[in-house]
């Protein structure tokens, strides 16, 4: 079934679909980010080319606080995009012009993987987060009538192997 969770204007939803796609929009009040949208058709090649290299991101002002709490200890300019109040601090810049929204799709893929089975459906979010994705997975699992677990028949399998290989 279509399932949606909201937090004010923020939302995350899944809807049934035979070709899983991810549509994500973010809107940050920061000159380096702003509003970004990305549409991604799930598949191994697409994942490797469009999503896998998108790094997490954060603000320099938060680094000391995170580390004092035992978080972000392995974070560096090599594996994260770090910004001050005005610009990106990584000398090489971004891997993709819209790396921020692509990373949010990477987060959503990982969060939905916690369901324990691939989601054969579309995912859409505005200003999504790990928290919203967590609420979404809880909403999906709350009622067994929200989903079904299917075994893909051999005649259908070739159509999905590009997605879940």
Describe it for me?
This protein is α/β, with parallel strands linked by helices and 165 residues long. The protein contains 5 helices and 7 strands, in the order E-E-E-E-H-E-H-E-H-E-H-H. The protein has helices at residues 44-51, 60-68, 99-113, 130-142, 154-164, and strands spanning 3-7, 10-16, 21-28, 34-41, 56-59, 80-83, 121-126. A 5-stranded mixed beta sheet has the order 1-2-7-3-4, covered by helices on one side. A two-stranded parallel sheet has the order 5-6. The two termini are 25 Å apart.
**Strand order across the largest sheet:** 1-2-7-3-4
Q: Please compute the radius of gyration using only Cα atoms.
A: 17 Å
SS field, number of helical segments: 5
SSE arrangement, N to C: EEEEHEHEHEHH
**How many strands appear in the DSSP assignment?**
7
Shape: globular
Average pLDDT for all residues:
91
SS-based class: alpha/beta
> What is the helix content?
25-40%
Largest sheet: 5 strands, mixed
Please state roughly what percent of the residues sit in beta strands, choosing from under 5%, 5-15%, 15-25%, 25-35%, 35-45% or over 45%. 25-35%
